[in-house]
Design brief:
Length: 69
């Protein structure tokens, strides 16, 4: 899992830990069993890698003003 997360460095991901805990952010760093995620408010979440169940890579849908997407 740690190697996979290192490959996603700089990308936006969703991380799910169990059934109720989910986090979204940009992968800042991965070291010694901890994933560092930065959200859109520049807050950093420190997630224990051994607790991660699912990782989704996020693709941003660009919206254009004035159009319904």
């Amino acid at each position: 899992m740690e190697e996979l997360l290192k490959q996603l460095m700089g990308k936006k991901i969703d991380v799910t830990c169990g059934t109720n805990a989910a986090f979204r952010g940009d992968v800042m760093d991965v070291k010694t069993g901890v994933l560092y995620l930065r959200d859109e408010d520049d807050k950093v979440a420190y997630v224990a890698i051994d607790k991660i169940a699912v990782v989704f890579e996020i693709t941003d849908q660009h919206s254009r003003p004035g159009f319904i997407v």
